[in-house]
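Thread title: Can someone regenerate the structure for this chain?

I was given the following input by a collaborator and told the matching structure tokens would be attached. They weren't. Posting the sequence so someone can regenerate them.
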Amino acid sequence: MVFQDPFTSLNPVTPIGEQLVQFQHHKRGRRRRERLDRAADMLRRVGITDPLVRLRQYPFELSGGMRQRILIAAALLTEPRLLIADEPTTALDATTEVQIVQLLRESRALVSGAMVVVTHDIALVDDLCDQVAVMYAGEVVEVGATRQVLYAPRHPYTRALLECDPAKLQASEGAFPFIPGQTPDPMTARAGCAFAPRCRKAVAPCHIAPAAMISAGLGGDFLRCGRADA
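Best answer:
Regenerated them for you:
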């Protein structure tokens, strides 16, 4: 897993090299020297210069972008079948963000299974993902191919969410678009569809019974709404 904050995800009192060795603990047949060599090679792959020097350094001696690259290297050293990246670009400046996105794209070839990106950044999803699952109040409300969901959304929440995308704003617009109402309290039991109080298509039954997840196509697309096409 690649966590959101690269600084708090690394041990501040342990050199980078030692941490990358420990990340390979499941490979019991490898000697320490071999693990260090693999760590240095992985640092080169993720674009870190002078990897032998970096292995001796501590996290506070490195920039945020370098720490995020090290986290990606650490995840790849485990030879994952599933790599989860949780808001991997949130703590980075715009230039470094572009570099990390490119690195994640290239890293897919080193993952033997799937990569899951958890993010609020719609542009990142469009750039990096093949499929997308949209969530609201802890529930998946729409699943489909990225191009289908982002450019022809069917769930009312997905549509409202995309209408609020800052990238679509025109300079002449005087107000920032938003979804009226409040998100539901996760500690309070609720009946009906979680989005119904804020949905323009909601009718009385939407507030009574939760919407079922229904198939929305032949490609594994799903939708949690009975009023999507109303």
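The two ends are 40 Å apart (CA to CA).
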